[in-house]
Design goal:
Length: 446
């Protein structure tokens, strides 16, 4: 069976998370742990071949970096110069549509159409179809393809006697946002058909699950306590980090800089027990209130978490008999800036954090099992669209007994040249409006 995963904006992290989850045996997703074959990949989408059917609804809820999960239906050859439309001209027959893409539905069907690119060059390369004499020049831009394809499919469906409504991406977009798929009930009342377009082939696919944007919003904005001053990690990113920790379901994770508890809540939702600590008593109170709200809202059984005030440099004392499997933490990024700070200030922040993290990691080594991971963020100051002042060196971890782990295996990184990895094979999560970005690092205790 072939599946495709639509990747989030920070696609390098999406791929890292997916690789970690797909490689781990997990009965909840029907994953055996045997290697998954990657068939195609681009910054937009990853196509895999699985030996057994995946439980996609469960997976979608647990992957912060995946926007949609699709089932690949067919692959159709395309000549390099052909438009997607041309390649699929004879494909969407009424019988194929009925059998492969649409469930029985009484009433007006809704369907949407999205194109994802396996080859981003297609954006630049309108197919060369010169205007025939006496005809208007044809709009060859790829952005015109969704409408034309949509009309072909609509015609096919109408021929089956169905009454249909077509939902298309907005002007200058090729794909429908997950919110549009959800709000239009496309998966309930029809389908979202996706075309994955490459240079010499196109895959046809149908959407099985989309990210629940409302629920992520709720987990972020509806919590009783928020802390704009210290900053909070977005739940999606916290989820990705927890997935990168490689712990087994039911084991215990620690966040020693837990703030108001975002990593803790996401850890619980992913099936772990969690311990949180923070030097700030007010943050701990916030965590307690948030987790109580979270427990009620998501019907979490008692005993899944514990939080306590403590300095991360002496957190081992808190744990006594508790065994933890991994540490997942945003950590502290130092001051938050609205304007790019002076170089001297950046240098000072890096020095302060190096001293703090040296002491913390020495402490973490006392409580982590061998091969236990620390997934954390360090600040990267954003100088330009893809340029950062990076944390100068993470070498101080080696004498403390840690190895820096590539966020994406070298084999995969070699295959996916488009990934945005730093020189030390970590990845950066940034936002347009933020000066202080998060470099996500994984350490493993030797
Ligand atoms: C960026 S905030 C973490 C926010 C958290 N990830 C969330 O989403 O709520 C960093 C936290 O580190 C805590 N902190 C700073 N120094 C600490 C230390 N030495 N030990 C423990 N916590 C510390 C701060 O009080 C703050 O709550």
């Amino acid at each position: 069976m072939k599946y495709a995963f639509v990747l989030g904006r920070v696609y390098t992290l999406s791929v890292a998370e997916l690789a970690a989850v797909l490689e781990k045996p997990d009965p909840a997703f029907n994953l055996s742990g045997e290697p998954i074959k990657i068939l195609e990949s681009s910054p937009e989408i990853l196509v895999i071949e699985a030996t057994r059917p995946l439980r996609v609804d469960a997976m979608q809820k647990k992957l912060g970096g995946v926007i949609k999960i699709l089932e690949v239906v067919d692959v159709v050859k395309k000549r390099e110069a052909d438009s997607i439309n041309f390649a699929l001209k004879h494909y969407f027959k009424p019988s194929v549509l009925k059998k492969q893409f649409f469930k029985e539905y009484k009433g007006k069907m809704q369907f949407g159409l999205s194109i994802y690119l396996l080859d981003l060059e297609l954006l630049k390369r309108p197919s060369p179809a010169p205007a025939r004499e006496g005809h208007k020049p044809f709009n060859n831009s790829i952005f015109s393809e969704t409408r034309r394809l949509g009309m072909i499919i609509k015609k096919g469906l109408t021929e089956t006697g169905a009454s249909v409504r077509l939902v298309l991406p907005e002007f200058n977009a090729l794909a429908l946002a997950s919110v549009v798929v959800t709000k239009n009930l496309l998966l309930q009342k029809g389908a979202e058909i996706c075309i994955l377009a490459g240079t010499d082939r196109v895959y046809t696919a149908k959407t099985l699950a989309v990210q629940d944007f409302e629920d992520y919003g709720r987990r972020d904005y509806q919590r009783p306590v928020r802390d704009e001053k210290q900053g909070m990690i977005p739940p999606k990113v916290a989820q990705i980090m927890v997935n990168l920790a490689n712990a087994k379901s039911g084991e215990t994770l620690l966040d020693p800089f837990c703030g108001i508890g975002t990593v803790l809540q996401e850890g619980i939702l992913l099936g772990y027990k969690v311990l949180g600590s923070d030097i700030n008593k007010k943050a701990i109170k916030g965590s307690e209130q948030n987790l109580e709200w979270f427990r009620n809202r998501y019907k979490i059984s008692p005993g899944k978490y514990h939080v306590e005030a403590a300095d991360a440099r002496s957190v081992a004392g808190l744990l006594s008999s508790q065994k933890i499997s991994a540490i997942v933490s945003e950590g502290t990024l130092g001051p938050i800036y609205s304007q790019y700070p002076k170089n001297a200030e950046i240098e000072q922040n890096f020095n302060d954090l190096t001293e703090l993290y040296k002491a913390c990691f020495a402490e973490f080594a006392k409580i982590l099992p061998p091969k236990g991971r620390v997934v954390m963020c360090v600040p990267a100051y954003k100088k330009g669209p893809n340029s950062y002042e990076m944390f100068p060196s993470l070498d101080f971890m080696a004498p403390l007994g840690y190895n820096l782990v590539d966020i994406i295996s070298p084999v995969l990184a070699k295959k996916m040249k488009f990934l945005r990895l730093t020189d030390r094979k970590t990845a950066i999560y940034d936002r347009k409006d933020q000066i202080v970005a998060r470099e996500i690092v994984i350490f493993e205790k030797a």
